[in-house]
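Hi W.,

Here's what went into the run:
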Amino acid sequence: MQKNDNKAKYYKLMEYLKDEILMSRIKPGEQVPSENSLAEEFLLSRHTVRKAISMLVNEGYLYTEHGKGTYCTDWNRKRTNSKNIGVITTYISEYIFPKVVTGIEQVLSDNGYSIFLKNTNNNPLKEALYLEDLLENNIAGLIIEPSKSALFSNNLQYFKALDGHNIPYVFIHGYHQKLEATSYVMLDDAAGMYKAVEYLIKLGHKRIAGIFKGDDMQGLNRHKGYAQALFDGRLLYNPDDVVWFSTEDKDTKPTEVIRQFMEEKRGIDSVVCYNDDIAFRVFELLTGMSIKVPEDISLIGFDDSYLSANSSVKITSVSHPKEKLGEIAAQILLQMLKDSNYLKNPIQNVITPGLVIKESCIQR
Amino acid sequence: MQKNDNKAKYYKLMEYLKDEILMSRIKPGEQVPSENSLAEEFLLSRHTVRKAISMLVNEGYLYTEHGKGTYCTDWNRKRTNSKNIGVITTYISEYIFPKVVTGIEQVLSDNGYSIFLKNTNNNPLKEALYLEDLLENNIAGLIIEPSKSALFSNNLQYFKALDGHNIPYVFIHGYHQKLEATSYVMLDDAAGMYKAVEYLIKLGHKRIAGIFKGDDMQGLNRHKGYAQALFDGRLLYNPDDVVWFSTEDKDTKPTEVIRQFMEEKRGIDSVVCYNDDIAFRVFELLTGMSIKVPEDISLIGFDDSYLSANSSVKITSVSHPKEKLGEIAAQILLQMLKDSNYLKNPIQNVITPGLVIKESCIQR
DNA sequence: AATTATTTGTGCGTATGTATC
DNA sequence: AGATACATACGCACAAATAAT
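Here's what came out:
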């Protein structure tokens, strides 16, 4: 112990003990000397020793067992006492997200956890805000759909902080590229889109336009599958037939460009879309232009959502597991919470979607 | 302060002081009596008083200033810019609740709020735990489906604490009886069940069994509508034809008693159920006993959920607005957050449900 | 099965230090 | 300077839980 500072005796003892713990001279689970023996050793009253110990108990370094002794906390597992899980998604109440979130809730609340729901609207600044927020609140774990996962993220520091605090996190739909080993559950977006395009080619389509989102990983991968399927089907990949949009112009650009394509009569016979939301908008656009689906143009969406089932012509779409995806993410997180080894050995789950054939494509 | 529990003195004092704070008898910023005067007042040693106070300081209820005094923490300030809303429901991911929660999320996240989701499993002790939890986190408001709303609640103190901190809250589905003026949105459960029974009477049914939940307000009101409809239809109300169950025995008692009814062949020609969950179980029971719905027994559920649509014979049910109910609750809360006058003038919204006629009832 | 030693938990008394008004 | 309030510190006694004898 130190020489004479002007610090209080209990405070110096507390610092000494904390140091012993941090330097692993007192190891997790190990018993610390009894109050009486510490008092004797450091020539203090038991009361003073108790004060020092109670501070460390409050900070979580130690815990006491009545009649047995005082022990060093194994704070790799310490987070267990928080039963709050942060869930950050791009959207919550729209599209397929309610179902994904329901799947997460199902599993987590069955296991006694509460959920802190936040949506970023795909805005990395909001993501940063919420990550900071959740770090301050004391959460046991995090499930996150990254915002703009294709772009470089400034939020990596927060994930490193989570690593530092041994707070496990699971990505869904995509993950920030720069993180080396992370747990995630996502779709094989390329394979899904490949199936859609392959199907159109089999039906005899020659000019397949594609609409893709440029600022998330899903969009890039779906585009990859599109290009690969064209190549394998011996069709030319024509950059001019591809529409790229982003979060900011998603409500206007896809339909505007497709309208232009149609007005130019450049001979497109089908369109594959980033998701059902876009597909549904394109369907409405085409209907408004008196272009018939599927007679004039075949159309395929992605995610097999209610949007592809509600239109007057049901839109063929690539499946999305929705609740199942949420459940898997939650189960992965639970495993990581149970066994801290999983923090080092990430669990990665890729689901291969299938094509759900409805009414929006016909043989050419 | 209380009488003699076997709790420790310091603990009882701590609870007493915490209660004073939660009930706003000690207001934020206000100075609490000095250690010596508390010791004198409660005939305790100063040391014991200090122990109680130090716990409350640790939990953040109080803070001390050396040489000046001990003060009540003002967590109002922090709350003002909080964009977090607590949502406590009995269940989250089952039955109609995902839709209700989705409605809440829709409105709140559109207005920039995050949601803290907790489910009580209809256990008032968990409700208490979560209410305390949310009071310590800084939430801007609360939407709550009360647990066991028919029974006397020990959790009223927390709602008074919310009042004291100007945190608005909205009840859904029911409300704790003892609170005088609260905002809520709920169904006219009596009217809904009345319509169901009236419909059965019109179809010529004479012996209508009823299954009701005894520990929430909805159950009592649905029973009320049942009894009133029988009376108006000049049928005898027979207590032996009524099954009461509670949260704890919901999975066993309703079907067991109905099985007994059937084995006794007491001439029941129809069953109205507290909700679709019960109705679905009864349907499966009857089918298992080779009793046909609706040929032998007519059956009506409540909530118009997927359960009443998924069975082989679609079950006639009383409608429930689900998302709409969630949206209304969220909108009420937003109004209360915007205009603090609403805290004094509660907004109460009662939705009258209708009967959704499907396939489970026929003319006798 | 009862006893005993050890350890933490509760509670009181006292004295002194130090910051605030 | 003095009164008041919280902070530190020591000592003592007994209660309650635990583990070993």
